[in-house]
Amino acid sequence: MKKICILENDDLAPEVVPLYERYGSMFERLFRDAGASDWQFDVFHTPNMEYPESFDGYDAVLLTGSKADSFSNEAWVLELRRRVSELLEQKKKLLGICFGHQLIAICLGAKVGRAPQGWGVGRMSYDWHATDLPLAPEDKKMSLLVSHRDQVLELPDKALLLASNAHCPVAAYSVGEEVFCVQGHPEFVEEYSAFLMNRRRETLGEELYGAGFKSLELAHDGLDVARMMKAFVEAP
Questions:
Q1: CA distance 16 to 95
Q2: CATH code, domain with 23
Q3: Residues 6+ apart with CB under 8 A from 91
Q4: Tens of pLDDT along 43-71?
Q5: In degrees to the nearest 10, what's the CA dihedral of 34, 218, 210, 14?
């Protein structure tokens, strides 16, 4: 059994809470579907400054996505970066998703900012580079549902590039046996991705909105990425 600390960095919109509960719950369902039926999860809501008394009892810490900027000076984001920097020093296993992927990169000294290509929404496909990673895609391709306008602008020092495409050159990376991060959202389902695009339709513009919505007709590899993360956490 593994014990996982989920640092939840955002709230769901009230209208979808009955469907999905909270972001922490979305990850719990994802990993159980990926075969981690015996994992134990504790969820802490970082915008409310919620943290465990100690991280010592956890096998891994997962950072969720957020609509906030990972590079902002909001008090709760500053505190989160401080905590994550300490966890990196302790070599605690970390999983980062979207905002979490970006925030960990900042703590590793990399640049993060607005994507020069603009918003990424819907389903996005990437080239997978780390073919020797356990459960890596045999076809060297990977697709995830995404929703972001910020991204990691350079590969962190000593990091291994896992996935990339023209829109997002650092779409996933790892550092040794301690860090595994992805820009996409393996926990998303198509209906939730569509909900987010509908909320931002005016911001996205009709062309991007239409293309993003159309992309949801194709399958994504969220469950496979969760299985890779499970193997990463369970590796000795």
A1: 25
A2: 3.40.50.880
A3: 176, 178
A4: 999 999 999 999 999 999 999 999 999 99
A5: -20
| Catalytic annotation, pick one of 5, 98, 107, 168 | 98
Residue 185 annotated as catalytic? yes
Please state, in angstroms and rounded to a whole number, the distance separating the CA atoms of residues 114 and 116.
6
Question: SS3 of 214, please?
Answer: helix
Residue recorded with tokens 């020069």: 116
Q: What mean pLDDT is predicted for residues 154-166?
A: 97
String of DSSP letters for 75-105: HHHHHHHHHHHHHHHTT--EEEETHHHHHHH
Confidence (pTM): 0.97
Amino acid sitting at position 210: G
Q: Is 187 a catalytic residue?
A: yes
Q: How many domains does the chain have?
A: 1
Q: What Cα–Cα distance (Å) separates residue 188 from each residue in 23, 117, 166, 233? A: 10, 22, 22, 20
C-alpha closest to that of 149 among 172, 121, 171: 121
C-alpha to C-alpha distance for 179 and 229, rounded to whole angstroms: 10
Rounded average pLDDT over 73-96: 98
Of 45, 167, 185, 220, the active-site residue reads: 185
In the predicted structure, residue 236 carries a pLDDT above the cut 90: no
DSSP result, 3-33: EEEEEE-----GGGHHHH--HHHHHHHHHHH
| Domain of 68, in residue numbers | 3-234
Catalytic residue among 45, 181, 187, 220: 187
Instruction: Please enumerate in sequence order all residues whose Cβ is within 8 A of that of 18, keeping only pairs 6 or more positions apart, or say none.
Output: none
